[in-house]
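May I ask for a protein sequence together with how it folds?
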Amino acid sequence: MAELENPSVMSKLIAFLSSLLERVAESNDLTRRVATQSQRVSVFHGLSRPTITIQSYLERIFKYANCSPSCFVVAYVYLDRFTHRQPSLPINSFNVHRLLITSVMVAAKFLDDLYYNNAYYAKVGGISTKEMNFLELDFLFGLGFELNVTPNTFNAYFSYLQKEITLLQPLSLVVVPSSRSLITFNDDEASHQKQQQQQLAV
C-alpha cells in the first residue's frame, strides 16, 4: 500500500502498534495475577521482562530489518491469529518482544522477495540464532502454518489501524475472559463489526 511508504505513517503505525501491544501485555499480566487458570509457558516466554520498551524494540526492528512496511500489518494479523489459536499463550510482558521479532520475520519471509536470514533477525532481536530458529518453528506451528493474508483481511486490519491512528486516542481494551486477543477480523464484513464491538471499547 502506498500509504505505508510514507515515513510519517509508518512512525505513527509503529507507535500505535506498540501502544496497543503494551496495553494488551499489561492487561494480560494483570489477568494472570488474579486469574485462577494458569497460563502456559512457551519458548516465547523470557525469564525476565526485557528492559527495552515495546516501541523502541519495534522501531529497532523497523530500522534494521529493511522489510516492506506491509510486513508490520501482516505481523499484526499473525499475532492476532496466534492468540486465537493459542489461547493459553496470551501476549504478556514476558513474551511480547519474542513474538514481535518472530512475527515480523515470518511476515517478511512470506511477503518479500528479498529478506534477511534468521541469524540476522536474531541479532536485530537480541537473541541467539538457535533461539530464533526455535521461535520461528513454534510460531509456525502455533499458526497452523496459516500464513496467507487475503487482500480483504489485510485491508480490514490496515483500515482499523488507520482509523485508530487518525483518532489519536489511546485504545482501552475490555478483557473478555474467553478470549485474550488483540482484535479479530474475518473476511466476512458483518462478523467483523460485531466482533470489533464485543472486544474493543474506545
Notes: The longest strand covers residues 172-173. The CA atoms of residues 67 and 114 lie 8 Å apart.
